[in-house]
């Protein structure tokens, strides 16, 4: 009969080199999880700060600024310009007009009217495109309609128009529309191939037009709300949730090490009861005859 093993305390097991090595490994994993959690929290805070900067810039501005002053053609779109008011002058090209399908407004799904505007003045008196191949094209979302058969809403004003609206960043390229004249994304990268360039890297969500286009009450397009940065109102909850997830994973790594030490200490106590270190409810491996042996009992 094997000699009983003396019971070991939690701290006696925890001081073993192998267990200390596991502790270091788990602490490193916990540190990585904690750092990822902090990074996600920083991301949430940055989104909130960016939204605050956007609102502050809008309040400080004396009024709408020229599109070219804020966003020269073919320059990258900075996030703080989302929702910023701007003005521009030019002529619509009704032949290039597209409907952006599957867009919701007030719980209803319909279409955005996307019309190219050949710019004549963007606030820079032509300086913003002086080194380019010609006057730029600006995508303009003139409003929302529920069905593409609303003819009054589809016709843009003739001649030179002066527009005021909200800037919005280009979307990622989509798969294309389900029929000619339709598209599933407002992607300047895709539109420049269809409308020509140069082009701005964002688009304008129409607020007002001179001369005016038909209003929604007159059968024209419904006006869209001011664009906002996605998740940018207050602390971003999605990033905060991810941060909490990483911290929970880090805590779990430490708890797993504690559980392993406790189980090993408990295993030592079981061996003092003559269990031979086996798993409770199963026979002691030392008492099992090896294959091919014959019992002498």
TrEMBL record:
Keywords for the protein's UniProt record, in alphabetical order: Cell membrane, Membrane, Transmembrane, Transmembrane helix
GO-annotated cellular components: plasma membrane
Membrane topology: Multi-pass membrane protein
Main location per the UniProt record: membrane
Region (Disordered): 267-297
Subcellular location: Cell membrane; Membrane
Residue ranges crossing the lipid bilayer per the database entry: 240-261
Domain of life: Bacteria
Protein family according to the UniProt entry: Belongs to the SURF1 family.
Name of protein: SURF1-like protein
Organism: Cellulosimicrobium sp. ES-005
Lineage, uppermost ranks: Bacteria, Bacillati, Actinomycetota, Actinomycetes, Micrococcales
């Amino acid at each position: 009969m094997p000699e009983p093993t003396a019971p070991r305390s939690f701290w006696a097991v925890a001081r073993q080199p192998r267990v200390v090595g596991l502790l270091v490994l788990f602490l490193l994993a916990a540190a990585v999880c904690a750092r990822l959690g902090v990074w996600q929290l920083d991301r949430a805070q940055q989104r909130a700060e960016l939204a605050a900067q956007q609102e502050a810039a809008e309040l400080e501005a004396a009024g709408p600024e020229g599109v070219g002053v804020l966003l020269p053609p073919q320059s990258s779109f900075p996030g703080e310009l989302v929702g910023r008011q701007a003005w521009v002058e030019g002529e619509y090209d009704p032949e290039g007009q597209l409907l952006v399908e599957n867009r919701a407004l007030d719980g209803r799904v319909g279409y955005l009217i996307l019309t190219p505007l050949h710019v004549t003045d963007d606030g820079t008196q032509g300086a913003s495109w002086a080194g380019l191949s010609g006057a730029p094209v600006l995508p303009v979302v003139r409003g929302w309609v529920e069905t593409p058969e609303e003819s009054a809403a589809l016709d843009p004003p003739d001649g030179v128009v002066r527009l005021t609206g909200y800037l919005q960043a280009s979307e990622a390229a989509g798969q294309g529309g389900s029929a000619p004249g339709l598209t599933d994304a407002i992607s300047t990268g895709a539109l420049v191939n269809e409308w020509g360039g140069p082009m701005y890297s964002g688009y304008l969500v129409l607020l007002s037009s001179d001369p005016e286009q038909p209003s929604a009450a007159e059968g024209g397009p419904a006006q869209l709300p001011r664009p906002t940065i996605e998740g940018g109102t207050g602390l971003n909850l999605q990033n905060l949730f991810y941060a909490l997830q990483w911290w929970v994973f880090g805590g779990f790594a430490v708890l797993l090490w504690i559980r392993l030490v406790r189980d090993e200490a408990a295993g030592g106590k079981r061996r003092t009861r003559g269990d031979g270190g086996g798993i409770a409810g199963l026979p002691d491996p030392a008492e099992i005859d090896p294959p091919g042996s014959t019992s002498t009992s």
